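Attaching the record inline, Q. Sequence:
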Amino acid sequence: MPEGRRFYRASGAPTGSKPDTPPSSLNEKSRVTKQAIAGLAALAVVLWLALFVPAGTLGFWQGWAYWLIFMSCVTAISVYFMRGDLTLIENRLKTGPGAETGSVQKLAQVLISLFFVLLILIPALDHRFGWSSVPAYLVVLGDAFTAIGLAVIFLVFRENSHASAAIKVNEGQEVVSTGLYSAVRHPMYAGALIMLLFTPLALGSFWGLIPFLGITVAIALRIYDEEKFLAKNLRGYDEYRRKVRFRLIPYVW
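Structure, as predicted:
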């Protein structure tokens, strides 16, 4: 989301929105850090199970490569911000349909979660039953672009420490129009879509590309609703939209 530190200062949060202040006390910092570490550990276990239980074997080298690359990148990103920006970490912990207040955003979150599960599950089943055969060079390419997509997300987080996982506007919030935000209005979603598009190939499956279409539609729905919210609640957002015309892909959309 185009939230951050530079240009177009917001006048404040909408009625009922709580200030987004960084964790200050040692106890708060410890709590956020522990929650982040627990979340990382849970993600590692759940992703491993989602890959190897449906595959029915540990001899799924594409799954091992993807799991190691994905978890290494996510862990490195998390450690970087745990050391220097716990505000971002705390914002990213509040995620899922329950963190949203709008019905459209709740629906979008449910659909994104469902299609992401299928994005992992179908390639694992594909490996088990041999539905498709992806050449090794495409698997390696898929792993590389998975890492590139996560690198884009890292750059977005570094530019915008208020990139919340839920749609909201906080007191003192500003619109970011620098870095990747100067090219497209939603670079975090762009990075996520790069990662998601190449995930099935990294896992050796062509059939796994089908859920990606569903995720793309769900993210587009989320973006449309998010922009309505930001235009209404974040001062300067309309001006930013006129300045940066494209949402996800320069000169396309």
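Strands lie at 4-9. Residues 26-55 form the longest helix (30 residues).

More tomorrow.
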